[in-house]
Amino acid sequence: MKKYDLLIKNGVVVTTTDMYACDVAVKDGKIAAMELNMDEAEAEKVCDVNGKLVLPGALDVHTHLQMPFGGTVSADSYLSGTRAAACGGVTTIFDYPVQHAGETILGLVNSKKEILEQDACVDYAMHCCITNLNDGEILEEMEQAVAEGITSFKCFLVYKKEGMMVDDATLARLLIRAKELGAMINVHAENPDLIDLNIEKFLKEGKTSAWYHYLSRPEFVEAEADKRAVHWAKHLDAPLYIVHMADKEGLEACIEAKRQGAEVYVETCPQYLEFTCDVYKREDGRNFVCSPPIKGQESQDALWQAIKAGLIDTVATDHCPFQSYEKDWGKDDFTKIPNGCAGVENLYPYMLDAANTGKISFQRVVALCATTPAKIFGCDNKGSLVVGKDADIVIYDKDKDFTITLDSMHSDYDHTIWEGKQLHGYPVQTYLRGQLVYDNGEFVGKPGMGQYIKRSPKK
Ligand code: URP
Ligand code: ZN
Ligand code: ZN
Ligand code: ZN
Question: What pLDDT, in 10s, does the model give residues 226-246?
Fold first, then answer.
């Protein structure tokens, strides 16, 4: 028996602050040593990466796998979604199971765990979407949920008709309770009444194309709810995580709250960084329909500027793809388009391309996609290449050009908003706790390899 199971030789390790030549040795799924010129004879298996980048596996902290939504179920199952994740360098996904009327948190989470235990190809955690307090029972149950590693809960400030929205009083109760327990509330912030008002008006006027999805929930509709959520969190002194931030005004409110010392975290998504609302004018505009919708150039510029300044904490995908025929339900009525787009396999390659082409640094990408999400959400063994942490490792070839096509993806969807996107540099291998799960275009892992991540509460 040799000292190490795996030795990754001659790589350039990337952390949030540094890039340096170093070998990485793995034993029993953990990083066991990081030194220069380690002895190949000490490892069962040696992988010479010849100057390629060695990165921590990414955490996609926002996915919706096999989620009942929009009159159907999102197109990626726990199996196909986590398989795609592995092939994009994501070694941990966070799912968002949604509580239905009367359901308990642990009942819901355990039902999802049963499927994930069989199907997950990467490690997984769950934020739980709370839609109803069940006469206060949920506030009690949160304590046990936190003890079992569910340390974040989501509130939708929208989706009223879908029965998923919570009112301000529920949001306030949850913020207070989460704080008591060392947990955190994540919010989807848009104003439902403004949206309904706009939808009613547009449908009456016969304005039914995907462009009106955007116009019914433009920048200020998101900003109102961002500001409301931040206001509550600030005055209740409770931590808050705003998911899929897409608008400049709301972003600025969060940045100001951070400046004042509030514990407010901001997540944005690759679709908001790559596209503008002009996509909704395209013939296939419905394929880009997600909520909040993709905004105008000014918002996109503000998001990039905040990323560069370190004022956005995480980039995650909101992966929630639907098939073409489902998107087509809304050809003549934008309100019938299932909301959501694909991204889990594109997150890390897209952000790393931004680094490789000089827009941001590789260190920033590691912070946004791995180290910071792991820290914010209590994944103590994830998110950085440090001795003792899980050996979730991505090997990245800066010289490999890659064009995203449906055929080169590993999901179950039949189209992608990323079709044709050219990337300079691409991941060539992904290791999940030291085991190779992705190798040069092929998924080589197995369903069931993924493990549940029991997360730590805030101290
Ligand atoms: O359009 C989206 N984002 N679909 C998924 C559900 C959500 O709001 O995150
Ligand atoms: Zn959302
Ligand atoms: Zn105030
Ligand atoms: Zn989402």
Answer: 999 999 999 999 999 999 999
For residue 21, report the distance from its CA to the centre of ligand 1, in Å. Answer: 40
- ipTM for the predicted complex comes to 0.94
What residue's CA is closest to ligand 1, atom 2?
340
Give the count of beta carbons closer than 10 Å to the beta carbon of residue 297: 10
Question: Is residue 62 lining ligand 1, measured as CB closer than 6 Å?
Answer: no
- Architecture label for domain 4-55+389-399+421-443: Roll (2.30)
Pocket of ligand 1 contains residue 330 by CB under 6 Å: no
Q: Which sequence spans correspond to the domains of the chain? A: 4-55+389-399+421-443, 57-376
Which amino acid, 312?
Answer: I
Give the right CATH number for 57-376 from 3.60.150.10, 3.10.20.30, 3.20.20.140, 3.40.50.2300.
3.20.20.140
pTM for this model (two decimals)? 0.98
**Cα 120 from Cα 77, distance rounded (Å):** 9
Separation CA 46–CA 420 (nearest Å): 35
User: Contact 62/343 with Cβ under 8 angstroms?
Assistant: no
Pocket test for ligand 1, best of 60, 61, 63, 64 (most atoms within 8 A of CB): 64
Residue linked to tokens 């709301």: 250
CB 391 within 8 A of CB 433: yes
Residues around the ion ligand 2 (C-beta < 5 A): 188
Proximal ligand: closest to the CA of 96: 4
For 122-170, the pLDDT digits (tens) are 999 999 999 999 999 999 999 999 999 999 999 999 999 899 999 999 9
